[in-house]
């Protein structure tokens, strides 16, 4: 799992060390050498888990952006982790009055609070 690109669709096989990485930054962190440039890239689709090759010397067409086995679109805009500052509510374990479960129906009626209970029991 890549911590640099959150929505990586393929793994890339590095031509220098023949190991699989999700992005070039992962290779730079784990390998002791620089990433070697190559004309042919080997990818592995994370959806169907099948490897395929792409020639990078020819013109890169729109059809080349899809996995040839499962048609997964792997050339998409990368989502990178960003720091977020937000306001959190109170701890629900301490005060759970603010949590309401919509799956539970409102049970206002009880057998002990119903009207005409004496008449129904006899």
TrEMBL record:
<keyword id="KW-0479">Metal-binding</keyword>
<feature type="domain" description="CHY-type">
    <location>
        <begin position="1"/>
        <end position="72"/>
    </location>
</feature>
<dbReference type="InterPro" id="IPR037274">
    <property type="entry name" value="Znf_CHY_sf"/>
</dbReference>
<dbReference type="InterPro" id="IPR008913">
    <property type="entry name" value="Znf_CHY"/>
</dbReference>
<protein>
    <recommendedName>
        <fullName>CHY-type domain-containing protein</fullName>
    </recommendedName>
</protein>
<dbReference type="Pfam" id="PF05495">
    <property type="entry name" value="zf-CHY"/>
</dbReference>
<keyword id="KW-0862">Zinc</keyword>
<dbReference type="GO" id="GO:0005758">
    <property type="term" value="C:mitochondrial intermembrane space"/>
</dbReference>
<dbReference type="InterPro" id="IPR052604">
    <property type="entry name" value="Mito_Tim_assembly_helper"/>
</dbReference>
<dbReference type="GO" id="GO:0045041">
    <property type="term" value="P:protein import into mitochondrial intermembrane space"/>
</dbReference>
<keyword id="KW-0863">Zinc-finger</keyword>
<dbReference type="GO" id="GO:0008270">
    <property type="term" value="F:zinc ion binding"/>
</dbReference>
